[in-house]
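From the shared-data thread, chain only:
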Amino acid sequence: MDARVLLLGAVITLLPSLTDAQTSTWTYDSKTGTLSGDATNTSRQAAKDIVALELAEYGAWNNHDIQGCLIVYWQSPNLVSIANDEETHGYEALRKEMLQEFAADPSIMGHIDLDTLKIQMLSDDTACCVASYVVKTEHYVYYCDDTATLRHLPEGWKIAFEKATLVTH
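Structure, as tokens:
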């Protein structure tokens, strides 16, 4: 048999799996408002729990509730939070930064309008969350893209790593 025929057969055999990988869906996508039909019941419930956690964080922000915002984070020295080029390592450092920034006048936190929230379950205890939102303050409008890794811990889902890119307009 000609080697080209064998190669063509191999490519044709791989095409469906390549197409499936390219068209895979998020476990949850706010643009469609749906949970993936391909997700297991465990993944679907985890995605629902993470959506609730993220929405609670945005609600706390909009209510200028700093402690409510912090409750979504892993209370560990291994937490990593990056905003643009500023890295914060550890929950206590993040807590201190948030309190220094907003405690005197929480109204400067402004208001978040969520545009997009997507969740991809990586395993039963790990997920990736991608969010796009706008923060409006009295003086600025920030367009934000945020990527987070969440872990399911005994106390529930918590953000273990996040990277936010903020652009001011």
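Residues 3-23 have pLDDT under 50 and may be disordered.
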